[in-house]
Amino acid sequence: MATFRTEAGFKITGRGFVIAGDIIEGTISAGNSIFTHELEPLNGKVIKSVESIRANTATIGLMISYGTDAELEELKGLNLQQRQIEVKEKRIEAQPPTPAKPITGAPHRRAKTFSIKL
């Protein structure tokens, strides 16, 4: 688990929404989840990447995804000045294996390769 102090938030077109700030304690990695009671729209969001914001400072950015324009506007409207959020490892629940697609086709008579339709 880690504690992160937020400073600001902004959108990067084509990438997602960035929460800028500093790690107070612990380690944060891509795939971790955000937990907060004060900033409900961030609760449960998964961190896509952790990136450096400014050279020569400890300020980093937590990149998260958003689904709709309405969700983006909600994220932009958050007061992220000097807020603390908890970052935890995402618990991955066991998923049943995905069945393999059947391979169909027949070998060519004079070739050593196969034609496969997916």
Give structural notes.
- The chain is mainly β and 118 residues long.
- The chain has one domain (2-88): Elongation Factor Tu (Ef-tu), domain 3.
- The chain is built from one helix and six strands.
- A six-stranded antiparallel sheet has the order 3-6-1-2-5-4.
- A hairpin with a 7-residue loop joins strand 4 (47-52) and strand 5 (60-64).
- The protein is globular, with a radius of gyration of 21 Å.
- It starts with a strand and ends in a 30-residue tail after the last strand.
- Mean pLDDT is 80; it is low at 106-118.
Percentage of residues in DSSP E strands? 25-35%
Q: Give the H and E element order.
A: EEEEEHE
Strand order of the largest sheet: 3-6-1-2-5-4
**Uncertain runs with pLDDT below 50, 5 residues or more?**
106-118
Mean pLDDT, all residues: 80
Helix content: under 10%
How many structural domains are formed by the residues?
1
Write down the CATH class: Mainly Beta
The count of DSSP E runs of length 2 or more, i.e. the number of strands, is 6
Second-tier CATH architecture: Beta Barrel
Largest sheet: 6 strands, antiparallel
At the fourth CATH level, what is the homologous superfamily? Answer: Translation factors
Helix segment tally: 1
What is the 3D shape?
Answer: globular
Termini Cα gap: 43 Å
Structural class comes to mainly beta
Q: What's the CATH topology name?
A: Elongation Factor Tu (Ef-tu), domain 3
Task: Supply Rg.
Answer: 21 Å
Task: Quickly describe the structure.
This protein has one helix at 69-76; strands at residues 2-12, 16-25, 33-35, 47-52, 60-64, 83-88. The chain has one domain: Translation factors (Elongation Factor Tu (Ef-tu), domain 3, Beta Barrel).
